[in-house]
From TrEMBL:
UniProt organism field: Brenneria goodwinii
Protein name: Glycine cleavage system transcriptional repressor
Domain of life: Bacteria
Chief location: cytoplasm
NCBIfam families (alphabetical): PRK11589.1
Cellular compartment(s): Cytoplasm
Length: 204
């Protein structure tokens, strides 16, 4: 025999605390210094949370750390209440938002592109618009500007990873991608991987 404990949330919904996994997205921003990542991850572990996914980047002089955490209701509530104080000690801006784990729809094609182009306004927008017009979901975007050196203008490096829905072949974007690179006088490369989709058969 076992007992299930219920708690009544502020939205009026009954939450099955002891069995349900909860999720929290955290963004931490602040001046970079040695040991800061270890301090954050140690605090996450001490609260009983697990890091499901994370991203780290240096933007200017600022350190940016994004994490998706999972844990019990008590663990997520604990880190929600304690991390802002921990962040204040480390002079970090902390943003938190509850989320849910959702099964992603089938994405049979993955597209990777790399672009090297002279930097100018709206360049990144042109490439994100290209993926949007082909109904592709951008999963990751990385960009970095190389300052001008001597007579060389500043250069922009872009990397994009995107997925196409089940109804589209990812390779349809290739001609439009190379056309855009030609228009912008950019050096670009694209790789497309199509994953086989297993259709359900009668009786299976």
């Amino acid at each position: 025999m076992f007992t299930l404990w219920f708690s009544w949330g502020s939205t009026g919904r009954t939450i099955l605390s002891s069995l349900q996994e909860h999720y929290l997205v955290i963004t931490a921003v602040g001046a970079d210094r040695p040991g800061i990542v270890n301090a954050i991850t140690r605090h996450v572990s001490s609260c009983g949370c697990n890091i499901e996914d994370s991203r780290l980047a240096m933007l200017g002089e600022e350190f940016t750390f994004i994490m998706l955490l999972s844990g019990s209701w008590n663990a997520i509530t604990l880190i929600e209440s304690t991390l802002p104080l921990k962040g204040a000690e480390m002079d970090l801006l902390i943003v938190m938002k509850r989320t849910e784990s959702q099964a992603r729809p089938p994405m049979p094609s993955t597209v990777w592109v790399k672009v090297d182009v002279t930097d100018s306004p709206h360049i990144i927008e042109r490439f994100t618009d290209l993926f949007d017009s082909h109904q592709m979901n951008i999963a990751e975007l990385v960009s970095k500007t190389q300052p001008a050196e001597g007579n060389q203008p500043p250069q922009l490096y872009i990397q994009i990873t995107a997925h196409s829905p089940a109804t589209l072949d990812g390779s349809i974007i290739e001609p439009a991608f190379y056309q855009l690179c030609t228009e912008l006088h950019a050096q670009g490369s694209i790789s497309v991987v199509n994953y086989p989709q297993h259709e359900e058969k009668d009786g299976e």
